[in-house]
Design a protein that fits this description.
- This protein has one domain.
- It is built from one helix and five strands.
- Strands 3-4-5 form a three-stranded antiparallel β-sheet, with no helix packed on it. It has a two-stranded antiparallel ribbon with strand order 1-2.
- About 5% of the residues are buried.
- It binds zinc ion.
C-alpha cells in the first residue's frame, strides 16, 4: 500500500474507502487528534488522526449531510 494511503470501511454504506492523508494540511495542526472530513458519495465522515497520522477514531458527520428531499 502506498505511503500515506489509508483504508477504512465506510460506517454508512459499508464500502471500502481508500483515502490519502492530507499531510500538508496536517503540518499546520498543533493539537491532535486532528479531524479530517471525507466526503463519500452523499455523506461525510470525520476521521481523527493522531500525531503519527494513525487513525484514532471515525465518526459519521451527520450534521454535514445535504438537505433532505421533500417528503410526500
Ligand atoms: Zn459511504
Amino acid at each position: 500500500m502506498a505511503e500515506g494511503l489509508k483504508w477504512l470501511q465506510c460506517p454508512v454504506c459499508k464500502e471500502s474507502i481508500y483515502w490519502r492523508v492530507p499531510e500538508e494540511g496536517l503540518k499546520k495542526i498543533k493539537r491532535f487528534p486532528a479531524p479530517v472530513v471525507i466526503k463519500h458519495k452523499d455523506h461525510y465522515l470525520v476521521c481523527y488522526l493522531d500525531s503519527h497520522y494513525q487513525l484514532a477514531d471515525t465518526e459519521v458527520a451527520a450534521d454535514c449531510v445535504e438537505g433532505r428531499a421533500k417528503e410526500g
